[in-house]
Amino acid sequence: MRELLLQGRLLGVVYLDHRLARGVFGREDELIFVAIANHISVALETARAARMQLERVSLERDLKAMHQQATTDALTGLKNRRALIVNCHSQ
């Protein structure tokens, strides 16, 4: 069994066993297993970071669209009263 750690944070656990025999895996196998576990940890963190980045971009796009809807008249496409008030307060 090997903990999947990255920067001291537990990401998960990997377990390697042989169904039919004990002691099949030696020290060299353990070193390979540790290396694989380390790669898995980095891959999980990379996937998490990519997912967070995509979510952030999506939220920013949604916020921009909501702001556009809140400050633009849907019929004419012109800035509405709310946009004027926001503009006055920002100056």
* Structural class by SSE content: alpha+beta
* Domains (count): 1
Q: What's the count of strands?
A: 2
For the sheet with most strands, the description reads: 2 strands, antiparallel
General shape: rod-shaped
Strand content range: 5-15%
List the total number of helices.
2
Order of helices and strands: EEHH
Alpha-carbon distance between the termini?
61 Å
- Uncertain residue segments: none
- Biggest sheet: strand arrangement: 1-2
Description:
- With 91 residues, the chain is an alpha+beta fold.
- 60% of the residues lie in helices and 12% in strands.
- The chain has one domain (2-90).
- β1 (2-6) and β2 form a beta hairpin.
- The longest helix has 45 residues, at 27-71.
